[in-house]
Amino acid sequence: MRPAMRTLSLPDKPLYDLIVLGFLLAVLFGIGLGDRPYSAPSESRYIEIGREMAASGDFVTPRLNYVKYFEKPPLFYWVQAESTRAFGFEPFAARVPTAAFALALCLLTYGLGRMLYGRLAGLLGAILLATSLYLFALSRVVLLDVPVSFFMAATLTAFLYAAHAPPGKQRTLVIYAMYVAAAGAVLTKGLIGAVLPGAVVFLWLALTRRWKVLKDMRICSGTILFLLVTVPWHVLVALRNPEWAQFYFIHEHFQRYLTKEAGRYQPVWFFLAVLLAGLFPWLTFIYQAKADALKGFWKHRYEDGRPLFLILWIAFILIFFSLSDSKLIPYIMPIFPPLLAMIGRYFANAWEEKPAPGFTIGLWVFMLLLIVMAVVPSLLSDYLDPANKVIVALSQGGDELHYLSFASMIAAGLLLLVHIQGRRRHVICAMILVSATILQLGDQVGAHYNKDSMKLFAGIIHDVHKPGDEISMYQIYYQDMPVYAKERITIADWKGELQFGTEHEDTSAWMLDDDAFWKRWLKNDRRMFTIMREEAYLRLTKTKTPESLHLYYIEHEGRNMLFLNRPPIDPDSKKEKHK
What we know:
This protein is mostly helical and 579 residues long. The chain has helices spanning 14-30, 42-56, 75-87, 91-117, 119-130, 133-138, 145-164, 169-189, 192-208, 219-240, 244-258, 270-278, 286-293, 306-322, 336-351, 359-383, 389-395, 399-421, 424-446, 455-464, 480-485, 499-502, 514-523, 534-540; strands at residues 63-64, 67-68, 470-474, 490-492, 511-512, 528-533, 552-557, 560-564.
């Protein structure tokens, strides 16, 4: 007997659900959003590109530290620029767009779950997604993966609805929304935004023999709409930058996927590990939920192809990225909405006291994970070297780490007590509350640890900065410094990911080789700050004194040092002292 799936007729108050759910999740995502320092490189990179667009008024050519930067399309940069204009330039404002897309992805999961399994399944699926480690962690960082996942999920959800809905105005609007969402995915992260959803749809049509569905998909007018959204920027950027097309299409799409050039190679099972960790704490229910939701999916694929569609959505994207030679943790975010929709269905059955095989086992494993979280930090402290980077990171978590361990143990006891009472819905509510609390406390622990943050140096420079002063970095580039400084940074003897841009535009005024930097530094006609790693300083001072190099020490944090090229203005200053 195949599992019954809901018809497309929805309960009466979806708008009410969206408002209440949106408010609750906005609180969850908003608490502590600005507490963490900017992280580098990825988060600061995307913030800085948006800032430079807002400052320059050039919304066509992306630039990083005012060097042409063509790795990604501009849609999210535009959103970042407008967020900066609207809310100011602070960590909270910079992260609002990502958190908003995470919220939208949860609401979309609500719609997907509701469409397939009913209102309660949709609500629980959205809440479980929001309280999963993967989405919660990504919602705190400015990255492209949450926005592109929203657009890809919207594309696939819209297609699934349109393929089964009766003809009418609502269906037509959903179809056109599908093309706009696909265009949004392309403008966020390139061709995969359309290729991956398109491949899922193609495989589903082939395996279910539903090719006639395409006749009702407004392919001609929808394609025109898609092109109207995506083509203008591609044409403008190509006209202004003849070198763009080769780098963007060949290097960023094909060479990055097919070669190890990006230096991000991981084994083929990498994303399976990411999936299991990212589903915390709900991974203890994934097997039961999948088995329950997809039972008989192949046998009944011609009668009801929706379970197969979910499998293809998850499997194809997971396999596609697993076969790539360039892997990063956030890449598989698009598969989480269908996964959590299925878990939401399973929890809805448990809530309504319907059969939910393995629920008690999942709960016990859930409690075991909490106990492990409570005891692991102290065990690591006992058995690892105090200088170990894991121990250093944990020690910098401060009181929040102790709160996290204590909360984990209390939560395990609370769940056991609630479980003994025998009401599944109370257990589910307790688990959701526990998960949200643990994630918030974990985020506060993480906010203490950013080993290469430029926040301290940026604050010191800001306190003594005068018009005409120049900020530089020697043989390194920490991408959060221009974000904090809100200005272009001089970079000495380093090219890295800015290499391509420096080859196609004159950037010699601020992208300096070693000789040009020292000539400017020693010329001493204006104040220059520079940041270098300790090993670079030790190498320089092996043959010359700090005085002869005009290296006047200001501050030292972690492995980085801050210098000025002039003696301190105030000899008693604690911030500008000669070493």
